[in-house]
Amino acid sequence: MRRLNPTARKQVKRRRVLPRWTRPTAIFAASLLVSGSIAFSGYWAVYSGQVAALTQYLEKTVVEASTTAGLVIEDVLVEGRNETTRKQIMLALDAHRDASILAYDPHAARARLIRLGWIENATVERRFPATIYVRIIERRAMAIWQRKGRFVLVDTRGDVIGREGLGRYGHLKIIVGDEAPRHAAKLLHMLSGAPNMMKRVTAAVWVGNRRWNLRLEDHIDVRLPEHNPEIAWKKLIALDQDYALLNRDITAVDLRIPDRLIVRMRPEAARRRRDGST
């Protein structure tokens, strides 16, 4: 075996180790591949005029290069979900494991998410190298809207949520009328000022696109005026507190005329009153 003398040994050049941050990576190699493809294909497209074919070729090249480089979907992170089911979200996202993350369209995914009834707004991001991040804002159910014989949930803005989760919100007030959802928030705010009385309200009907009729327990209807319904509501509360009005044999209380109270008695009670038996 040939030996090197000390002088010769000093002259042997060692192979330089590149720092970790300067080593070529698969991603860098993929970018070179894509750049080279773009340069060559761009010349070819100009020469041949087949721009559409070039676009498809470049998209395919980028996707293949990103997959080779390891830029694939591995995780989906979702925040803000309460009412929307996991299955609904995953179907809307359409994010498949090991698919190219560069080929994934977050804008289209967001549009599909917002079409789900419970979702008011959403953010979808590609977080490289391998995560799809989703942040959703869900609607807040306000009331149950009876429409064409069916019940649906509506949110605080009056927008329809749908029937999903309807069983969990049976405690909400039922509203009826074509434009009822648009006016319900103001009504419910008024009713909430007297929680005990509000509990007795089972439904509200938007009449003539201008005022409310309330249905109370024991099938008592309360007709509120178009203007200043808050004053009429407070008047009803005072009458019930002072005279137990709503515990009497009545079917309706008409508060539409200021400074006047019209009460309709139940037929049996009215008959007894005419006969003098009460």
List its salient traits.
Ubiquitin-like (UB roll), alpha/beta, rod-shaped, nine-stranded mixed sheet, 278 residues, Rossmann fold, 9 helices, 38% helix, 3 domains, three-stranded mixed sheet
Short note summarizing the structure:
The protein is built from 9 helices and 12 strands.
The Cα radius of gyration reads 35 Å
Strand order of the largest sheet: 6-5-4-7-8-9-10-11-12
In the CATH scheme, what's the topology name of the largest domain?
Rossmann fold
Strand content: 15-25%
- Count of alpha/pi helices: 9
Which structural class do the helices and strands define?
Answer: alpha/beta
CATH architecture of the largest domain, please? Answer: 3-Layer(aba) Sandwich
Poorly predicted ranges (pLDDT <50, ≥5 residues)? 6-35
CATH level 4 superfamily of the largest domain: Cell division protein FtsQ/DivIB
| Through-space gap between termini | 131 Å
- What is the ordering of alpha helices and beta strands? HHHEHHEEEEEEHHEEEHEEH
What's the total count of β strands? 12
Q: What's the domain count?
A: 3
**Average pLDDT level:** 83
State the shape.
rod-shaped
Can you describe this structure?
The structure is a single chain. The chain has helices spanning 6-11, 26-48, 51-68, 86-93, 106-114, 180-191, 195-199, 229-243, 267-275; strands at residues 75-79, 119-127, 131-138, 141-147, 150-155, 160-162, 174-176, 201-207, 211-216, 220-223, 250-254, 262-265. The longest helix is centred in the first third of the chain and has 23 residues, at 26-48. It has nine helices and twelve strands. It has a nine-stranded mixed β-sheet. It has a three-stranded mixed β-sheet with strand order 1-3-2. Residues 6-35 have low confidence and may be disordered. It is of the alpha/beta class and 278 residues long.
